[in-house]
Amino acid sequence: QRALFMRGFIAVANISFEKQVMVRFTSDQWESYQDYAATYQGPGAANSNSDLFSFVIKLPNYLATVNDFGLPDSYVANSVSIDNQSSSAPVRGDEIQFAIRYTCFDESRGQSEYWDNNFG
């Protein structure tokens, strides 16, 4: 069985030099979760005063197999529900969810933490 990964990009406001970006991921409605550090990729879009980070998440093994409908693994991976935006494709009723944590460090303001999950 092959592993299946999800790769994403996150643009954050450049409000301090020192920052950390983390992705919190769950596949069981937040009964458990895993944290993944995002990696700095460089400045964001021109004139946007943002920085770009990327992440790679290993998805649960059941998403890398043929589902109950006999669909190939590539179809299953493309029909996963993300941010509560359900796909019409059948995928055993499973879903993944994630939230982004952005932590900034500034000598004058100290540490600030911001979370975003697209209201999910």
Describe what this molecule looks like in 3D.
The protein has 1 helix and 7 strands; from the N terminus they run βββββαββ. The protein has a 4-stranded antiparallel beta sheet with strand order 3-2-6-7, with no helix packed on it. The chain has a 3-stranded antiparallel beta sheet with strand order 1-5-4, with no helix packed on it. About 21% of the residues have low confidence. Helices cover 5% and strands 44% of the residues. It is globular, with a radius of gyration of 17 Å. By secondary structure, it is mainly beta.
Distance between the termini: 31 Å
Number of helices: 1
Give the SSE order as H and E letters: EEEEEHEE
Strand fraction equals 35-45%
Rg over CA atoms, rounded to whole Å, is 17 Å
Q: Main sheet?
A: 4 strands, antiparallel
Query: Which regions have little confidence, pLDDT < 50, spanning 5+ residues?
Result: 69-93
Query: By helix and strand content, what is the structural category?
Result: mainly beta
The number of E-state strands comes to: 7
Question: In order across it, which strands form the biggest sheet?
Answer: 3-2-6-7
Helix content: under 10%
| Global geometry | globular
Mean pLDDT: 76
Keywords:
three-stranded antiparallel beta sheet, 120 residues, globular, mainly beta, four-stranded antiparallel beta sheet
Quickly describe the structure.
The strands form two sheets. This protein has a four-stranded antiparallel β-sheet with strand order 3-2-6-7, with no helix packed on it. It has a three-stranded antiparallel β-sheet with strand order 1-5-4, with no helix packed on it.
